[in-house]
Every structure is written in structure tokens, then in C-alpha cells.
Amino acid sequence: MGADDSTATVRELGEFALIARINAGRAQAPGVLLGPGDDAAVLAAPDGRLAVTTDMLVQNRHFRLDWSAPEEIGRKAIAQNAADVVAMGAVPTAFVVALGCPGETPVAVIDGLTAGMWAEGARACGASIAGGDLVRSPELVIAVTAFGDLAGRAPVLRSGARAGDVVAVAGRSGWSAAGLDILLAETPAARRVGRGARAAGGDAPEAGLGTAPRIDALRTAALAAHRVPRPPYAAVLDALRAGARPTAMADTSDGLLADLAHIAEASGVAVDLDSAALADPALAELATALERDAAQWILTGGEDHAFVATWQAETELPPGWRAIGRVTAGSGVTVDGAGHAGPRGWESFSGAESPPVGDPR
Amino acid sequence: MGADDSTATVRELGEFALIARINAGRAQAPGVLLGPGDDAAVLAAPDGRLAVTTDMLVQNRHFRLDWSAPEEIGRKAIAQNAADVVAMGAVPTAFVVALGCPGETPVAVIDGLTAGMWAEGARACGASIAGGDLVRSPELVIAVTAFGDLAGRAPVLRSGARAGDVVAVAGRSGWSAAGLDILLAETPAARRVGRGARAAGGDAPEAGLGTAPRIDALRTAALAAHRVPRPPYAAVLDALRAGARPTAMADTSDGLLADLAHIAEASGVAVDLDSAALADPALAELATALERDAAQWILTGGEDHAFVATWQAETELPPGWRAIGRVTAGSGVTVDGAGHAGPRGWESFSGAESPPVGDPR
């Protein structure tokens, strides 16, 4: 197939040629014993178990083609699944992807999506895309299933937190929500000029940020964080390989408070966060410029795909982790000893029927 | 949660309550070491490998709620994935399901879908639904990933057929396509009166079948075959357990000719089918009554999810298998030595943008 095919539509190229194009020249990871082309793939499960998770991303619900490049969407789809695998204490080894798209989708969009998937799979410990399905649907739908090797260790559950443990995070919180807020503020302009709005975003009247280079840089960082989360896989996996072990762990997909609430409920404990430890001066600077609340981003913003874990108090926190609170007896999650007012995080069916993408409120 | 919740919508019940409802009282299969409720499930892989396959079903493309009950759709979604696993020579052990649906979807629809999934998982060798994802989407989208245990055997690939092998099938061909044709003929009535058309289908003027009880019974059988394929899993798995081994195998999802073409291409051989061996008197009787071509249904109809395999000539075919042709040197698939005119089977992006469900033409 020629590079010229990228200007064709999916219908023009056809299912089987597109599948061949997607898989051409790909080298499978060692954990994939049999890749695409048969009724099923065969994955290695060296310790006799596999961690497995699946997530579905729906166009205009979880991503927008006028907000993100196809490659960014592909990376995000893989990253959020890889983060779930790593949050179990497992090493990502492979992914399978079911993809639905309209017949008029440009092949270039599929090229971008799959390039992003392969790139993030490689970043997540050298994992590859072992197979998938390609069907027609009214809008883009991406369902990723991710696999991880527990390497002989017990999975790290949400239910192991105990009173006295330290709560710590690896990775940033709130930056994805900040990026989403910026995109939402730009939406009228984005609708008017399509993808061009992205390059010209800093000039959008809604943003109101003028030309301050410092704010522009923060703004760019927030947009990047929303478009492609960068879960700090190594902070978890290096710690586990070095023998450190959290008592409970999750990735922050729904929001820090919401995900800690899942841990607190599963463990039968309470969590109290220290707002001073959560402070992020750069994010606060951006929030001030945008007239937003940085604490709200940090506590309730979803899709950061950082890792939050509880550690026995005597454990020295591994590199990349910082303490943000304590586990206590009781139930629920508090900040500086008080309940947090307002929404806590993402819920799939809350809000209007056609909300802005990624809006957890 | 009360049974009354079935009259609520998905939005009214909410994501987390619905997930709890879906998983309430479910007993996981032995191959599921950790089920729903954490960042990932953990599956057993007793021989150090897992066969893995994924398929996406999109509403009004792969199923219609006015043609099939939710339980039937759930069964079909699992069956088509379980058939892929079995076609590799693996025993289904678990499934994960990513489900997208509108907020106004009745909880009763989700109840039916999940009941069907669990029922077919149990039929497929006692496998269970180990986890999933639930998101909002404009129409129902179901992405199933299925897992199978190879039980120490090499996977049965599409590429192992050799000249001289016997081609044989386990299960029926063409009945799903016949059911689809009946549904398509009834579509105006179905659109007019919704689900009621199903019970009253025999009276629909389009059907033109009068009240002949024999034809009505065949018609009912075809509709059932289309709504819920019944892959003969045991015909494959019992044969493998007894030490028999096909040289190549696939399930018939795209159509007998199309799926055999995949085997022929992967193996570098030709296949010639014997039309007399493929004849199905009951299906021919139904085709005559409907003024259709039974051979076209049998050769090109998709979604039967029977199994087609090649066996060394000296092998005694195991119970449930019947010979339908021969592998020869060359390439392509012929019937009685001649090429088959017309379309060969399903292709995801062929046809109009909004074709009738399941129509491979």
C-alpha cells in the first residue's frame, strides 16, 4: 500500500486493506506470542496470571477531533488503560483495540490513532498492540483492553489501606482539568474555525490571557496534559521492583477525591488530605490568570492518570512519590479535616445528554 | 437495589449503582482470580499463555433493538467472541465487556444484555464476565474481549491447511443469513409497530408465508439462528481433548466462502467445496417459500459462527463434523471446481453508509 492511501477514506480503502496497513511493519513485544491475523492473539502469561482492564472512549464524549490530534487520542486511549494495569502493580505487556469509525473517516485519522497507540504502548514498558477489530459506527469509538504481567507479585488492591498509612501520589493532579477548562473556554472559536483554532488558541478572545509568555507556557502545558496524560509508570514499577509495596493503589482517572474515596470505601478507612502538600504553585498561577480555582482542579479534576497509593508509615517513599495525607479510622475523604464542598469527580451519566467532552460536572 | 430499578433509566440509576447492579450476586468462574471492583481484573493463565480476541458490536449496524431482545444481543456478543477463542483451539475462560449507551437507556435493557452475556458465558464452558467499563454514547456499543486457555496445546492457526486435507464443518451454515433476510423483509412492519412486530411477524404481509406450519417452524428457526448463534463449542473442544487436531480452523463469521478464503490465503492452498455436501434440505425448503437462493445463504451468509476446519485425509472426522470439500494445490476457493459468482461475504465498510443490520451485501 502506498503512502497516498492516507488521503483516501476508510470506505475507499476497505476493511481488509486498512487492517493490513495498520499492522504493516509492526514488531510485536516479547509478551505477544501470536499477533494479528488469526481468530485470536496469543499472549504470554509468564507467572500464570494476567491483569486485564478495558476502557471505551467515545467521540465527543471522551475526545474531540477538533481538540486533539488523532495521535494524541491514540496515546490517551492506551495511557489510561496502561495506567489501570500499572495501578494493579502489573507491567503492561500488550493491548487489543476494537475501533469503530464512519466509512468517510480519512485513513490519515486511523494512521494517527494507531501511531499514537503504538507509541504509548512502547512508552508503557515496550508493550505492543496484539490485535483488534475494525467496524463501522456513526462516530469514532475506541475500546482498549490492556494486559499486564504481575511478575510473581500479588496485585495491589484498593482494599489494603490501613489507619496510620501515608497517602502519597506519583505524578501531577489538576493539569488535565485545567487543560479541559481552557478548551471549553475556547469552544466557540474552535467550532468556528475547526482545527485552526488550536494553533490560534492563544489569540482567542475568551482566553483573555494576552501575551504573557509565562502564562502561555503554563497554558500549553495544561493543554498537553489534557490531550495526552503521561502516567509516571516507572515511579510505580521501579518501586515494586525495588521491593517497596504500597498497601493500596489506584490511578487518578475520576479525580483525586473520587479515586481516594474508592480506596477508602474498599479499605474501610478514612483519608485526610493536606491541602498544603497538594499545592502546585504553577497551577495556581495559571488558575489565577484564568480566574479559576486550582484546588478544585487538583481535588476533582479527572484524567490525570497519576498514581495515588497508601504506604505503611515506616516506609520510605520511593523516588517520584510525595506524601499528601494520612489514612485514619472512619470513612470518607476530607481535606484538612473538613469535607470538600461540591462535586467530587467524574460520573459517566451525570450532566446534560451532550455535555462538553471530559466535563466531570 | 430493588427490582423496581429496572423501570429507571441508566442516568437515573447512575454509573456506580448500575455497575453494582450488574455485578450483584455473580459467581466468577475458576479462571477469574480477581473480578470487578479494582483497576483491573486478574485472570488465571494456567499454561502460561492466554488466547485473546476482541469484537465490537454497534447498534443498528450489528444489532437492532426492534429485531432482538437485549438478552439475545448479549448472548450474541459473547458467542461471537467465544467462537473466535474456540477456533484457536482454546477453552473460553473469561470475558471483559466495555459498554456504551445513552443515558435514557432503560436499566431493563442493561439487565437483559448482561443476563444474556452471563448465560452465554456459562454455556461457553463455564466462563464468566470478569470486568468491564460503562460509558455514555449516542447509541449502544458493546466491545467484548474474550480469553481462552490453550490447555498446553499449540493454537490451531489458519495457516496449517495442506493439499489433500479434508475440509469439514461443525454447525450449520446459512441459517443466520436466512433469518436476516426474513427480518429485512419485515422491516417496514417492524418500524411501524416496534417490538410488537416480532410476535406478530408471521402475519406481516411482506412475509407472504401464509400459515403453513412447516414453513413457520423453519422461519422461526432461522430467526433464532440470526438472533443468537449457537456455536458448537463442544464439537471442537471435545475433539481436541480426545487428541484429534485440525490442520487449520476458523469460525464462520464473515461467510463460509470468505472464511475459507482466509484459510486458503494464510495456508497458500486452494479449497474446493462440494455443493452436494453443503446442501441443507430444510433451508432449501425455506428458501423456496421465500423465493430466495439457499446456496447463496450457505456460501456467503455471515454470523453463523459454525466452525470450519481442515483435517488430514486419514483422520476420522470427530463427532459433530461433516466433510464438505477438499484442500488442493493452488489458491482461492471454488465450488464444484468453479468460481462462485457474486459477493463472498461481510466487509465492514462496504455498502451504503446506513445499511440494514448485518447485511453483508
Your description of this structure?
The structure is a homodimer of 361-residue chains. Chain A is of the alpha+beta class and 361 residues long. In chain A, β1 and β2 form a beta hairpin. The first copy, chain A, has helices at residues 10-13, 15-23, 70-87, 107-123, 175-193, 196-199, 213-227, 233-241, 256-267, 275-278, 281-290, 294-300, and strands spanning 32-34, 41-44, 49-58, 91-101, 128-136, 141-149, 166-170, 248-251, 270-273, 307-311, 321-328, 332-335. The first copy, chain A, is built from twelve helices and twelve strands. Helix content of chain A is 35%, strand content 21%. At the A-B interface, α2, β2, β3, α3 and β4 of A face α2, β2, β3, α3 and β4 of B. β2 of chain A pairs antiparallel with β3 of chain B, so a sheet runs across the interface.
